[in-house]
């Protein structure tokens, strides 16, 4: 006879391999705190509804309190043959308090129990992650503030396009992270509904009070269909989608840090504590941390696809397939949390080489558009101005000079409309200052953007 909870129905125990294959306690013990929280709320409701008496409730409360301490102190003995976190805790409770422990599972199933635990876990994780995104945003703001007039080339196709200030570039990431926070908050709001009460799938015949449980656990309401409550994991999928986007944003920034740190760019240097050397090449300083962020993004994207695939073939209601939601979900939370934590710190260690940024902006005819706009403002149709400037760039490139290094007669070869006032337009600062509208790169606008961002953060 095996020790399983349902052993009365079975003639033979499962094999050791099946036991190992079906067990989830190795990873779902991360849910222990939430499982206890959920059980306490459930037990209080059972007692309030007269389904168990107050002596049972008192015993359950003290037993679960002791178990919580045992788990926190690392004294709790997890048993594989008890399959998962729920049965491990319940069994221990019964050992501690006897029959009262056996009454806890009245009007409940592991199906609504686990759906509740995962929501509680994820809700706490989201709160944590939003806090970490805010820290990273603060680090971005601080760096942006120091560089509201640090000129760098803006790129399209990774070719020099138009000059921008570095602060503006950094604030682009602030905006992405702002939307990421909104996505997480949105996901949290939809997720914050109580599954308990759905029991196995159809609800329960006991006079339960779901709203009381929801209120105790800080849910905004109850799941309104019992089949849906135990079977869907869309909230976890939504979270993983939001997480994949956050990682994608961080991966893009990482790619830029890696490029900028390359001596051919030389825009920035990362603090040594985020880099490693090479075992063979003594001169190397490699940007391992941003490279790993880029790499781990693949892993988080993979978890999203894993969960979508897990869900797509499941008939209603609960299926054991859903046990497979946990490892991708936990790994997503842990990878994202670590990444955000490390990123906030890494940004404070970025050293900027203003001269290199400026020199790079000087090299790629970054103000060519400004010259075309100048001609257009003097009456030339934009397409013709574009063509005239293209010829001027070709000419300047022939003698390896910037447009601003051409003499006035040379420039006038390309258009009679060009005058001495052109040189103010062709400078990097002239170009940047002229983009003076909301969302533009003019330092005055970037300062306002930073102010708006501070307000949003607070
Ligand atoms: N460990 C299971 C899970 O994660 C708990 C629910 C099991 N329910 C069941 N009927 N087998 O989904």
From TrEMBL:
Pathway: Amino-acid biosynthesis; L-arginine biosynthesis; L-arginine from L-ornithine and carbamoyl phosphate: step 3/3. SUPFAM superfamilies: L-aspartase-like (SSF48557). Signal peptide: none annotated. It comes from the Bacteria. The gene is argH. Residues 365-432 form the Argininosuccinate lyase C-terminal domain. This is Argininosuccinate lyase. It is found in: Cytoplasm. PANTHER family: ARGININOSUCCINATE LYASE. Belongs to the lyase 1 family. Argininosuccinate lyase subfamily. It is an enzyme of class 4 (lyase). The keyword Ribosomal protein does not apply. Residues 8-302 form the Fumarate lyase N-terminal domain. Keywords: Amino-acid biosynthesis, Arginine biosynthesis, Cytoplasm, Lyase. Its EC number is 4.3.2.1. GO terms for molecular function: lyase activity. It catalyses: 2-(N(omega)-L-arginino)succinate = fumarate + L-arginine. Its main location: cytoplasm.
């Amino acid at each position: 006879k095996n020790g399983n909870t349902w052993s009365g129905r079975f003639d033979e125990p499962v094999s050791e391999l099946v036991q190992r294959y079906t067990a989830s306690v190795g990873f779902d013990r991360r849910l222990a705190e939430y499982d206890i929280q959920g059980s306490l709320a459930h037990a209080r409701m059972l007692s309030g509804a007269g389904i168990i008496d107050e002596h049972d409730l008192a015993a359950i409360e003290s037993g679960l309190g002791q178990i919580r301490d045992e788990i926190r102190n690392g004294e709790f003995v997890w048993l594989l043959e008890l399959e998962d976190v729920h049965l491990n805790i319940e069994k221990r409770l019964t050992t501690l308090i006897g029959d009262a422990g056996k009454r806890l599972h009245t009007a409940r199933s592991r199906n609504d129990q686990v759906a509740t635990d995962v929501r509680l876990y994820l809700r706490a994780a989201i709160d944590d992650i939003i806090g970490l995104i805010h820290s990273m945003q603060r680090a971005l703001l601080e760096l942006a503030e120091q560089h509201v007039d640090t000129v760098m080339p803006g790129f399209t196709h990774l070719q020099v396009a138009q000059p921008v200030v570095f602060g503006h570039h950094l604030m682009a990431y602030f905006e992405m992270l702002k939307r990421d926070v909104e996505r997480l908050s949105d996901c949290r709001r939809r997720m914050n509904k109580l599954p308990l009460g759905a029991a196995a799938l159809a609800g329960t015949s006991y006079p339960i009070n779901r709203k009381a449980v929801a209120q105790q656990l800080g849910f905004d309401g109850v799941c309104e269909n019992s089949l849906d409550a135990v079977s869907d994991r869309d909230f976890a999928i939504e979270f993983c989608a939001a997480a994949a986007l956050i990682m994608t944003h961080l991966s893009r920034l990482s790619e830029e840090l890696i490029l900028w740190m390359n001596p051919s760019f030389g825009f920035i240097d990362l603090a040594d504590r985020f880099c490693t050397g090479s075992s063979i090449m003594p001169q190397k300083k490699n940007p391992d941390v941003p490279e790993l962020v880029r790499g781990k993004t693949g892993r988080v994207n993979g978890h999203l696809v894993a969960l979508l695939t897990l869900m797509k073939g499941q008939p209603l209601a609960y299926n054991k397939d859903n046990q497979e939601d946990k490892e991708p979900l936990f790994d997503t939370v842990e990878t994202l949390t670590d990444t955000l934590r490390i990123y906030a710190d890494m940004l404070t260690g970025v050293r900027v080489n203003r001269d290199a940024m400026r020199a790079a902006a000087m090299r790629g005819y970054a103000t060519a558009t400004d010259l075309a706009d100048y001609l257009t403002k003097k009456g030339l149709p934009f397409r013709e101005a574009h063509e005239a400037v293209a010829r001027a760039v070709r000419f300047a490139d022939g003698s390896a000079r910037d447009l601003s290094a051409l003499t006035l007669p040379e420039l006038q070869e390309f258009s009679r409309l060009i005058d001495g006032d052109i040189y103010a337009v062709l400078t990097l600062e002239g170009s940047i200052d002229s983009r003076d509208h909301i969302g533009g790169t003019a330092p005055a606008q970037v300062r306002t953007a930073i102010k708006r961002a501070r307000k949003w953060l607070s």
